[in-house]
Amino acid sequence: MFLPDNTPAPSFSLKAEVSERPVNLRSTTATLLLVFHSYQTASVVAEVIRTVRNLYPSPDQVLIAGIADMRVVPRLLRGTAKALIKNAYNDAARQVPPGQDPADHIIILSDWNGALYEAYQAPLTNKQVALVLVNDDKVIAGSYFGTQPAQAALSLLAGSQLSKDS
Prior knowledge:
- The chain is built from five helices and seven strands.
- By secondary structure, it is an alpha/beta fold.
- Helix 1 (42-55) packs across helix 5 (149-165).
């Protein structure tokens, strides 16, 4: 489960759902927190984002991207799935602080064929989310799978900050 720490992060380039913001691992300048989730665990992503944003308010410090496992969605139902994602995005956008662009805070990357899940060796996320932290050097700085993802995200980020300073 998961690629080992200090492994180069697998490259990817996707457009976020709704905002169509391009997310390219190689051109991202901030530390990147990937939150792998399924439909069943999507609500946990908001908790992780809120917790991280309390300490790291700027997406320039930490960019958080939700990787939605869409492998279970039949091709015929992708339009319906995208409509559900749009509704969730719009609900979340209302919680973004005034004057800030929701596209910087709500990044939903649909993994329709499981390519990112496979590349990052993420476990199934129908019961809990999985986290992968990619540092500024595009190296995996840590990962987590368990029942306390919000606290784990802060721990991963604190560990990454410490390693940058030492």
